[in-house]
C-alpha cells in the first residue's frame, strides 16, 4: 500500500505546485505587514534571554571545577551538564560546597570523583533502550533497486542501527524532571549516537528520511510527536531535548518531516494534528527577533529571516572549550565591555542555532573567530527552509480542507520566492548568496539592498535552493546552477565540500555533511535536466562509497566525512569526531532507495 501512496502523493504534490503557479497569478499581493505573524520590530537593548534552571546553573559550577581538576586534555564539557542527580539539588549543592578546594578552586581528583560517584548518575543514564515497534530485520520491499549483495548486506546493517539507537526517557525523567537536564518526552526517539544521547531538531529530518526507507513509519511519527511536544511546551522546537537548548532552535524542518511522512503513509489524521503546531512554529520564525525587512532595487519590501538565539552567556554544553580548546571567556576577553561580550556570546549561540557550528561562513574575518556575526546575516538556506515551510503548510492545509490557510501561505511563499530573485540570487555566479546586513541592523526602517552585501564566498548552502521544487522545476535555472556547481571547487572525490576554506572549523573544507549532500542531490535529481540528474547520481555514488569504505574500515557510520579522500571521516571543530550516526545513516538509505546499486558495480574506492 505504501509505494502506491508514495507515487499517488507525489502526483498530488505536482498538481499542487501547478496550482501554486495558477493561484499566484490571481491572488492579490500581500500587504507590507505579514498577516501570518506579528508585525516586525527592532530588537532593541540587550535582546531576549531565556533563564536557566537552578540545576543547570549548578552543573556549570561542577563543570568548571572538573576543568580545573582534570585540565583540558580529553575534557568534554557536555558530559557534566548531562549528569543527573541521585537526590535533591539542595543536598547536592551543600555537599559540593563542603569539598576542600585549593586557592584556584580545584579539588583533588580523589575528592571530586568521590563526590560525582556519590551524588550523580552517569551521563546518559537518563535514557533507556526502547524496542522500536515497527522494526523488522529486512522489511518487505526494502531498497528494491539495490541489486549488489555486498551493498545490500551493508544497507541492512545500517538499517539495523535504528534499533541500536532507539531510546526513551527514563521513568526518573518523567517523575522527577527537576533532577535532570534531559527533558521529558512522551514518545521514543532515535538518538544520533556517541556523546549525543538526546534527540536533535534538524538531524531528525534525515533520520526520518532513513526511517521511511526502512518502512518504520510509527517510529518516524513518534519523532514528530516529540518535536511538537517541545514546540507546545517552549514556544519553539528546541535545538535538542536538553534544558541548555531552550534558548534556541535549529533549522526549521518540522513541516518537511510531516510532509514526507504523509507522502508515504497518506495519514490525514496525522496531518490534522500537526497543522496547528506548524503554523505556531511559522509565527515563531517570523517574530520580531528573527524577521527583518529588505527593500530591493525595485523598491519592493521583503520580509526575510535570520538566526537569533535568546542567550548572551557562554553555552553551558560548550562553555569551557570552543575553537581549538580556547575558553569562551578567553575568546571574549578581547572585548572591552560586558555588552560586547554578551553580543559575542549571542553570536556563538546563534551560530549553534544555524546547525553550522562553526564555519567561516559566519565570520567577518575568516581567521578571527571573535568576528562571528551570524545575527547580521540573512542565510540562503534558512530562508529556503521557511519557503518550504510555507509551501508545505499550504499543501497540508489543502489536504485537510483548510483552503483559507492554503491561500494565506501561498501568498507568503509567492512573496518569498520573489525575494530569492531580488535579494539572494547572483546572476554572474549562478548561485544564491547569503546577504549581510548593515551595521546597526536592528532598526525599524527597511534596509536597502546593496550588491556588495552579498557574501560572494562559495559555500554548499549557495546551492540549497535547488532542493525546492519551485526552483528545480525551472530547467534553464537548474542548468545554470549545475554549471556553477561543477566549476565551484566544491565537488570533490567523496562528495560536496562545505566550503573552500580550510579553517579547522568542522563546517568548512574538507568536511562534507550528509544533509548538504542530500538536499543538493535531491534537488538536482528532480530536475528535467539530464546533466543535472547525471551530476546528482555521481555525487550520490561518491557519498555512498565513502560511507561504505569508512564503515568497513572502522565498523561505524560517522557524523561527517573528509570529501578529499574516499573512505575517511571528517575532523575539526570543538569535539572529537562522533560515530553513530543518525543523519548519515538516513541519507545513505535515502540515496540507495533513490539510485540503487547495480549488481556488478564495485563499491570500493577507485
Automatic annotation (TrEMBL):
Organism superkingdom: Eukaryota
Source species of the chain: Gossypium gossypioides
GO biological process: trehalose catabolic process
Single Gene Ontology MF annotation: alpha,alpha-trehalase activity
EC number: 3.2.1.28
Protein's UniProt name: Trehalase
Key word Signal present: yes
Catalytic activity: alpha,alpha-trehalose + H2O = alpha-D-glucose + beta-D-glucose
Amino acid at each position: 500500500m505504501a509505494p502506491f501512496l508514495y507515487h499517488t502523493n507525489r502526483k498530488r504534490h505536482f498538481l499542487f505546485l501547478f496550482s501554486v503557479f495558477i493561484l499566484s497569478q490571481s491572488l492579490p499581493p500581500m500587504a507590507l505587514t505579514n498577516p501570518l505573524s506579528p508585525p516586525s520590530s527592532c530588537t532593541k537593548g540587550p535582546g531576549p534571554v531565556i533563564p536557566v534552571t537552578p540545576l543547570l546553573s549548578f552543573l556549570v559550577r561542577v563543570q568548571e571545577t572538573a576543568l580545573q581538576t582534570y585540565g583540558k586534555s580529553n575534557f568534554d564539557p557536555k558530559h557534566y551538564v548531562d549528569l543527573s542527580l541521585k537526590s535533591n539539588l539542595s543536598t547536592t549543592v551543600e555537599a559540593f560546597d563542603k569539598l576542600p578546594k585549593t586557592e584556584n578552586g580545584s579539588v583533588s581528583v580523589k575528592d571530586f570523583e568521590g563526590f560525582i560517584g556519590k551524588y550523580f548518575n552517569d551521563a546518559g543514564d537518563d535514557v533507556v533502550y526502547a524496542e522500536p515497534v515497527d522494526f523488522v530485520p529486512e522489511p518487505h520491499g526494502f531498497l528494491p533497486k539495490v541489486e549488489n549483495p555486498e551493498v545490500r548486506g551493508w544497507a541492512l546493517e545500517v538499517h539495523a542501527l535504528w534499533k541500536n539507537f532507539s531510546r526513551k526517557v527514563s521513568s526518573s525523567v518523567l517523575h522527577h524532571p527537576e533532577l535532570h537536564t534531559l527533558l521529558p518526552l512522551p514518545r521514543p526517539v532515535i538518538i544520533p549516537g556517541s556523546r549525543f544521547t538526546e534527540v536533535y531538531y534538524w538531524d531528525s529530518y534525515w533520520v526520518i528520511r532513513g526511517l521511511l526507507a526502512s518502512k518504520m513509519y510509527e517510529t518516524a511519527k513518534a519523532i514528530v510527536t516529540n518535536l511538537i511536544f517541545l514546540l507546545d511546551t517552549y514556544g519553539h522546537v528546541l535545538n535538542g531535548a536538553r534544558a541548555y537548548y531552550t534558548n534556541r532552535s535549529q533549522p526549521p524542518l518540522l513541516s518537511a518531516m510531516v510532509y514526507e511522512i504523509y507522502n508515504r503513509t497518506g495519514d490525514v489524521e496525522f496531518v490534522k494534528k500537526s497543522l496547528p503546531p506548524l503554523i505556531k512554529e511559522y509565527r515563531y520564525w517570523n517574530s520580531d527577533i528573527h524577521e527583518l525587512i529588505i527593500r530591493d532595487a525595485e523598491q519592493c519590501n521583503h520580509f526575510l529571516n535570520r538566526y537569533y538565539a535568546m542567550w548572551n552567556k557562554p553555552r553551558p554544553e560548550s562553555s569551557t572549550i570552543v575553537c581549538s580548546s580556547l575558553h569562551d571567556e578567553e575568546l571574549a576577553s578581547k572585548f572591552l565591555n560586558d555588552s560586547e561580550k554578551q553580543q559575542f556570546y549571542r553570536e556563538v549561540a546563534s551560530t549553534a542555532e544555524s546547525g553550522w557550528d562553526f564555519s567561516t561562513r559566519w565570520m567577518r574575518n575568516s581567521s578571527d573567530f571573535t568576528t562571528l556575526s551570524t545575527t547580521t546575516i540573512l542565510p540562503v538556506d534558512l530562508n529556503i527552509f521557511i519557503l518550504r515551510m510555507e509551501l508545505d503548510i499550504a499543501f497540508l492545509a489543502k489536504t485537510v480542507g483548510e483552503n483559507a490557510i492554503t491561500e494565506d501561505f501561498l501568498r507568503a511563499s509567492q512573496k518569498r520566492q520573489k525575494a530569492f530573485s531580488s535579494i539572494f540570487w547572483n546572476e554572474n555566479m549562478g548561485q544564491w548568496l547569503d546577504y549581510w546586513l548593515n551595521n546597526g541592523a536592528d532598526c525599524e526602517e527597511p534596509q536597502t539592498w546593496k550588491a556588495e552585501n552579498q557574501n560572494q564566498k562559495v559555500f554548499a548552502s549557495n546551492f540549497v535552493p535547488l532542493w525546492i521544487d519551485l526552483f528545480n522545476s525551472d530547467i534553464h535555472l537548474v542548468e545554470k546552477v549545475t554549471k556553477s556547481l561543477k566549476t565551484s571547487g566544491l565537488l570533490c572525490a567523496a562528495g560536496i565540500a562545505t566550503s573552500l576554506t580550510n579553517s579547522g572549523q568542522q563546517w568548512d573544507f574538507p568536511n562534507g555533511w550528509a544533509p548538504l549532500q542530500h538536499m543538493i542531490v535531491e534537488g538536482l535529481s528532480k530536475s528535467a535536466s539530464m546533466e543535472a540528474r547525471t551530476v546528482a547520481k555521481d555525487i550520490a555514488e561518491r557519498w555512498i562509497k565513502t560511507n561504505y569504505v569508512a564503515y568497513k574500515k572502522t565498523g561505524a557510520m560517522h557524523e561527517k566525512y573528509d570529501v578529499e579522500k574516499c573512505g575517511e571521516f571528517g575532523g575539526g571543530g570543538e569535539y572529537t569526531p562522533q560515530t553513530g550516526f543518525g543523519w548519515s545513516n538516513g541519507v545513505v538509505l535515502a540515496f540507495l532507495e533513490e539510485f540503487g546499486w547495480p549488481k556488478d558495480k564495485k563499491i570500493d574506492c577507485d
